[in-house]
Design a protein that fits this description.
Length: 165
Amino acid sequence: MQNKPCHILFLCTGNSCRSVLSEAIFNHLAPAGWRALSAGSQPAGQLHPHAVALLHARGISTDGYYSKSWHDLDVTPDIVITVCGSAAGETCPAYLGPVVRAHWGVDDPSHVVGTPAQIDTAFDHAYRLIRARIEAFLALPLAQLLGDRAALKAALDTIGALQRN
């Protein structure tokens, strides 16, 4: 992984909200040579409009993003991070292949029922949590960790435990 671009797949079931937020935020912040993708095991077929609006409000482009299956990826990822939440008893898809895997659970804001303010709060919380985790990831000594898969996995797992508000 050291001498080639690094591809990170953010994976969930529907690929309409959390994984797309992760892909867009990562690509917005990532250094050259790093690229995030997102996909789902059962893609919804469209991006959640609230997720798209939130990204646009934060100045993050969604050009070219769409809800897709993991079978439609144009590259094999190096790292797969699942972002399914546990509050609704979701089952995360399991990506099989020779990749570093981690889980960064995020409750699905698209399932929140309530006032517009409550829904906005849920989306904002998911955004802030994902962004904090991605910023922690990008602050790691990546060149060093890419040569040590076990250390990279341990670092990703530690980041997945972050629950910032």
